[in-house]
Structures are given as C-alpha cells and as structure tokens.
Design a protein that fits this description.
By secondary structure, this protein is mostly helical. It has one domain. It is built from 20 helices and no strands. The longest helix has 29 residues. The radius of gyration is 21 Å and the shape is globular.
C-alpha cells in the first residue's frame, strides 16, 4: 500500500515530487558542505602536515605588514594597464586587503576565503556523487593544500566551478573573469573550457574528440613550460624561465592520473563528449608535471570536477579507478603526514 501510494502520488504530481526530492538533496548537500568546510578550516593541519602551509604564512605576513590597508593594488603596484592588472592579479590583492581591514588580521581573512572554497567544493561533489566517494576526493592532501595554503589558486578555480554549474552565461562570464584576476592560470582553464564546449558541439567522431581534448591540454602545457619565455614573457608574467620550469614532478602521481585519462579515452563517445573538458585539464597537468613540481595544484584546486568525472566512468572502469585512487590516496596521506615521525 505504501509503495502504491507513493507511485500514484508521483504520477499525479510529478513536478511537485521531483522538486521536493531535489530540494531535500540540495539542502543536505549544503549542510554537508558547510560541515566539511568548517571541519577542514578548524582542523590543525599544520600539526600533521609534513610540508606545512608555507604560502598561507607568507600571505599572512604580507597582508599584515607589507601591503598597506589604505591603498588599492593598482595604487600600490603603480599599475596602468589591463595586462598589468591581470599579471599582478589585482582582485586577489584587494580582496584579501579589504578582508584583512574588516577582520583586523590576515589569517582570519584568509581562513574565511578557505571556508568559501571548501564549501563550494563540498556542495559541488555532494550534489553529484555518493557521499563516501565525495569524501575520498575532498580529503585529498592536494585539495587541502590548495584550499588552505595555495588559496589564490583554490579560490579562482572554485569560481570556475560555480560558473560551469549555472545556466546564466552572463554570470558565468563574470565569474570566469573574476577568477582570471585572482589567479592568472584561470585564463588557461577558461580557454580549455571554451574549447571543450565548442569541440563537444561540432566534433562528431570519437577519435577526433579525444585528439582535440588531449591536444588542447598538451598544447597549453608545452606553451607554459617549453615556451614559457615566449608566451609568459610576452605578457610580463613573473612565472617564466628557469626559476619556474625547474623539473621534479611526481612520476607516481602522474601515473595514476595518466591511467584515469586512459580510462576516459577508452570509454564511449557519450562519456568523452561529456568529459572533454576534464580530459583537456588532465592532459594539461600531465604535460606540466615533468617541468613544474607544483603543477599538482592544477589537480588539487580542480579535484572536485575531476572526481565527479571519475564517477561517471562506465561501471567496470569506475570501480577499478576508485580502487586505484583509494590505494594511492592512502600512500599519499602517509607520505604527506609527519605523524610517523612521532611514532618512531
């Protein structure tokens, strides 16, 4: 009787039932996202993290002591062109400066931003995948590092995540533009997204779709490493040359995500069309990895989107990858933590 009643109600009022279910799921995702963000922000990661959060401490020092509260980034850096606004990431500087002025302490301002990043990530994943799988990606050390130390990268990419999740093209464009003036690498992410949308729309052949996504990622990866002096030098970006392209990327890390890229490219056309953006981002990361050791922040700051794409794999490949990823995550956490130093 109860099942029959539910069936009749859903047939009689399908829209009302659908909206009720969606609203309940969304509400739970908001609650879980809030709890996740609060936990990560309040947890004393510095106590267990082997490498610590050096960027966070540098930001705190800069915004507490070096960057004046009564001058905007444009005034402080004497900027005079849009290109200079972009390369100096003025929106980030003014956001942290103003928040520091409001709170009276840069560390509080930065943790407010970290909370926002983590909340966006949690909401994004909890609405799309099972809660257990979501936590596997949300508690990845690289994600925690991007949210708690490489905050500029994490914030910019979280705005992109919001942008690709909404219907309004105008608001999406505003979010993408804001992200570019927070972290300049967001321009690459937006270019790959725009290319992926276009490729998925006009390219029909599966092999050509794969080649276009992988090729786009490899192209921008080489442009920012092998061609960094030419490309980044042309716009005056500080991240170029021998001080930036220093080698030392992780082979084990690259192997895992290379395997995921292989699983993606050997899936059906419908999946590839849906995931062409993630394919391009992974190819970008894998190309950067041998040249730039901190290329892992591309993964860390965009892991919720990559994780969601992993759960859309065909069932057999999804299971294999989740097992591989879980095993790698255990090793990654053991390496990342310094707790074993205390035990020995």
């Amino acid at each position: 009787m109860e099942l029959a009643h539910t069936f009749v109600m859903s047939r009689k009022f399908p829209t009302m039932t659908l909206h009720l279910k969606l609203s309940q799921k969304s509400l739970l995702a908001v609650l879980l996202g809030f709890c996740y963000a609060l936990f990560v922000v309040l947890f004393p990661w510095d106590v267990i993290s082997r490498g610590g959060f050096s960027d966070f401490h540098n930001y705190v020092y800069d915004y507490n002591y070096l960057i004046p509260q009564n001058e905007s980034a444009i005034e402080f850096y004497h900027l005079s062109s849009v290109k200079e606004y972009f390369t100096n990431e003025v929106l980030w500087v003014d956001l942290v400066r103003n928040l520091t002025g409001l709170t009276g302490e840069a560390s509080i301002a930065l943790r407010i931003i970290s909370f926002f990043i983590l909340f966006v990530w949690g909401l994004f994943l909890f609405k799309r995948v099972s809660y257990g799988v979501a936590l596997l990606f949300l508690f990845n050390p690289f994600a925690i590092d991007a949210a708690m130390s490489g905050i500029r990268n994490g914030l910019a990419y979280s705005l992109v995540m919001i942008g690709i999740s909404i219907q309004s093209k105008v608001l999406r464009g505003v979010l993408f533009l804001a992200g570019m003036f927070i972290h300049s690498s967001t321009l690459v992410l937006v270019v790959l997204y725009s290319f992926a949308v276009l490729a998925a729309r006009i390219i029909k052949a599966k092999k050509l779709l794969i080649l276009s996504g992988v090729g786009a990622g490899v192209f921008v990866g080489l442009a920012l490493t092998v061609g960094s002096e030419l490309v980044l030098g042309a716009i005056g970006d500080r991240r170029r040359g021998e001080n930036y392209v220093v080698g030392g990327g992780s082979l084990m890390q690259a192997s895992l995500w290379g395997a995921f890229l292989f699983f993606q490219c050997t899936s059906g056309r419908a999946y590839i069309r849906q995931s062409i953006f993630v394919i391009a981002v992974l190819a970008w990361y894998l190309t950067m990895n041998p040249f730039i050791p901190w290329s892992y922040r591309i993964l860390g700051a965009f892991l919720p989107v990559i994780g969601a794409s992993a759960t859309y794999l065909p069932q057999c490949k999804r299971k294999v990858f989740i097992y591989l990823y879980s095993g790698y995550l255990v090793m990654q956490c053991l390496y990342w933590t310094k707790l074993f130093n205390y035990w020995h």
